[in-house]
Amino acid sequence: MPSSTFLSISYSLLCEKSKDKMGYSSSSKFPLLMPLMVACLIMAASGSNFHNDFDITWGDGRGKIANNGEVLTLSLDKQSGSGFQSKNEYLFGKIDMQLKLVPGNSAGTVTAYYLSSKGSTWDEIDFEFLGNLSGNPYILHTNVFSQGKGNREQQFYLWFDPTTDFHTYSILWNPQRIIFSVDDTPIREFKNMESIGVPFPKNQPMRIYSSLWNADDWATRGGLVKTDWTQAPFTASYRNFNADACVWSNGASSCKSNAPSSSTSTNNAWFSQEMDSAKQQRLQWVQQNYMIYNYCTDAKRFPQGLPPECKMS
């Protein structure tokens, strides 16, 4: 089990909105939207293939790729969970994945989705979804490790039920910042503050990992609520993976001169991307209304003083 146990949607939404406006019989009334609809159809038809991008690494058959590679599922029962990892390693990128989480009584289960390097001074960028009793919200747990040091947890409730449909969870990772987003809404930003002595993940390539496993010793209400195995198997589903990223192979990046070239990235704006004022407002909205834990406000945890990056935010 990884050490992180405590751990392109805007275009899709535009397509969905255009469908809502147009319907399927009124496109002639909106000729300006036709190129968008064609592009949407191409995007839908050319989606990712999990056979090409990922290997199921454990679970004894509990992880499955279906629908000609369009969908991947992980399952958990009393004997074992399951997991997968990307075939490629990445050093910076914009990573999107759609997940539909374990429905019903998911107490005790954790669905982890993260980037991680190897070694004793590893880097890591985490999404972890902590299950709960039916009717109660999931907790979305985030963390950032740099040079083997984490302890940068922020936790959120979501503003929707993540078990009834797929939602897109994105990591933007460039040399200046890491931005966690849900359905193109930023929920967290971790800036590069090496200038004040805060290590930042920028030198170690990372793979994408995901796993579904039992953590009922801590995951739900601190371990008070245990996994109900009569509800097993528990299943999480994945689709529409996209990595607009620098692939690391044989000690070299597919992006030259520390910036992606036009030949290796269909849209390299992410390499220097930062949040505009609208995104910053969305981030504030999430953090004011849905954040339930922030290490930067936990003075009891840091009696010698909050970490230096907390004083800059």
TrEMBL record:
Pfam families: Glyco_hydro_16 (PF00722), XET_C (PF06955). One of its GO terms (molecular function) is xyloglucan:xyloglucosyl transferase activity. Its main location: secreted. The keyword Repeat does not apply. The keyword Nucleotide-binding does not apply. It is found in: Secreted, Cell wall; Secreted, Extracellular space, Apoplast. Its EC number is 2.4.1.207. The active site is at residues 124, 128. GO terms for biological process: cell wall organization; plant-type secondary cell wall biogenesis; xyloglucan metabolic process. GO terms for cellular component: apoplast; plant-type cell wall. InterPro entries: Beta-glucanase-like (IPR000757), Beta-glucanase/XTH (IPR044791), ConA-like_dom_sf (IPR013320), GH16_AS (IPR008263), XET_C (IPR010713), XTH (IPR016455). Residues 4-238 form the GH16 domain. Glycans are attached at residue 132. Contains at least one intrachain disulfide bond essential for its enzymatic activity. It is an enzyme of class 2 (transferase). Keywords: Apoplast, Cell wall, Cell wall biogenesis/degradation, Disulfide bond, Glycoprotein, Glycosidase, Hydrolase, Secreted, Transferase. Catalyzes xyloglucan endohydrolysis (XEH) and/or endotransglycosylation (XET). Cleaves and religates xyloglucan polymers, an essential constituent of the primary cell wall, and thereby participates in cell wall construction of growing tissues. Belongs to the glycosyl hydrolase 16 family. This is Xyloglucan endotransglucosylase/hydrolase. It comes from Gossypium hirsutum.
